[in-house]
Amino acid sequence: MNSSFPIRYVEPVYRPPSEARSLILPVTDGCSWNHCTFCEMYTAPQKKFRARDEDEVMRNIQETGARLGDAVQRVFLADGDALVLPTRRLLSILEAIRTHMPSVRRISSYCLPRNLRKKSQAEIDALAQAGLKMVYVGAESGDDEVLARVNKGETFDTTREALDKLGQAGITRSVMILNGLGGPALSDQHADNSARLMNATQPEYLSTLVVSFPLGEQRFRADFPEWAPLDQPGLFREMERLLSALELNKTVFRSDHASNWLVLKGTLGADKARLLAQVRSAIEAPEAAPLRPAWARGL
Length: 299
Known about the structure:
This protein has helices spanning 54-68, 87-100, 121-130, 144-149, 156-169, 187-201, 218-221, 232-245, 272-284; strands spanning 23-26, 28-29, 50-51, 74-78, 106-110, 132-140, 172-179, 205-210, 251-255, 264-268. The chain is an alpha/beta fold. A hairpin with an 8-residue loop joins strand 9 and strand 10.
């Protein structure tokens, strides 16, 4: 980043794929929980959690607005869980964006379910009215045993409560499930209860990634020593089980992250039969399926 740019970034910087054209505005550094054993995003020493100084954030907004003007139409509030900030601070940030970047049409953020436990429905409604349009929730699983084994710090009920609050406020929810997170032993319950969570909350977007460990599995296996990765057929069978159990009315579904062997895209439930057929074809004849080559998979 050019040193003259008004925003100070602490590398590495993460954002969802759909925020590629967004201004990344850090309001926190790191992740306030940061105990999930499968996650490597915020483990670097420089990513220790802290809330950004309020004056710095306001200055960033003012200077970016003055420099970029109408070029900014989307803003993503970084880092891992901006919604951990007090509602008062979040409302001030949203108001400043409206004031200094009036062309912005969407403001979004990652969201840990735990960060909404102390926020009332009225507070979340106020955030929506102030311009928070979309949040990305890493549910990972709807199964309490899987969640406990990976030290997620959440349960089916806490994730459902957060998604329900967001939905009631009219905030678009993009939920992520980790394919293979429970390994072979917990695969069925992971799929079944993840589907149950999605059916109960009906998120606007749902995506799946394959759990992977570019930096090694040591941290993960400390709490889950018997875990084993699902092989390719196992991943496909888990996906088939998940899709079969999903009863969604109008959810955009994506399984197209670089970690996925088989790219799946559609709307559930309209495209459920087609998506299931694609997965079943990959199970029955993987050599004929349009699979991503191994060299192209990664983070």
